[in-house]
Specification:
Helices cover 91% and strands 0% of the residues. The chain is mainly α and 182 residues long. 21% of the residues are buried.
Length: 182
């Protein structure tokens, strides 16, 4: 260093500062790209969860209407069609539930899902009972069950589903707000 002129020493210092600044910019860019990739993946997962919860909610509402039509109906062909459609929709709901279970980001999401599944199970039990009564030609008892316990169980289930959709939307919104703040 002693053999270098003052000008060379100054340029060496400037070059060191420039190399340091470029290194910092490169590292910051790599970190930003990594964070963006992480946020994009979280956004994709949470968006899918919201979509699945919304589809589940819509299918459950359709099945609730079909159940009511099935219990109140008098035509055997209509009954058979409604039963087949309910079964098909129930299978689609099971696939959506499975996707929601596997993509749950934390224990709180798993617990919210478990609560809705309990409400679903209670509603399905009431539906089975009403359909069994109808099969046994106990139309009045079937209708009474529909108007009372089945309607209440269905309302609780649909309300739980709506809350799940809202919570998934809030989780996505919170994540996007966090991403914007970063």
């Amino acid at each position: 260093m002693k053999n270098l002129s003052v000008t060379h020493q100054l340029w060496l210092g400037v070059a060191t500062i420039i190399i340091g600044a470029v290194t910092i910019l490169i590292l910051a860019g790599l970190n930003s790209a990594s964070q963006q990739k992480l946020f994009s993946e979280r956004d994709r997962v949470l968006s899918q969860r919201l979509e699945h919860a919304g589809q589940w909610n819509a299918l459950a509402q359709v099945n609730a209407a079909r159940t009511q039509a099935l219990v109140l109906g008098h035509d055997a062909q209509d009954d058979a069609e409604f039963k087949a459609e309910i079964a098909q929709t129930t299978t689609a709901i099971a696939a959506l539930v499975q996707q929601l279970e596997t993509s749950a980001p934390d224990e709180a999401a798993r617990q919210r899902l478990a609560q809705v599944l309990q409400l679903r199970q209670a509603m399905q039990g009431q539906r089975q009972q009403a359909l069994q009564l109808k099969t046994e030609n106990a139309q009045d008892a079937s209708r009474e069950l529909l108007r009372g316990p089945l309607r209440q169980a269905t309302a609780a289930y649909l309300q739980g589903l709506q809350q799940l959709v809202q919570q998934e939307a809030q989780a996505l919104s919170d994540m996007r707000a966090e991403m914007g703040a970063s």
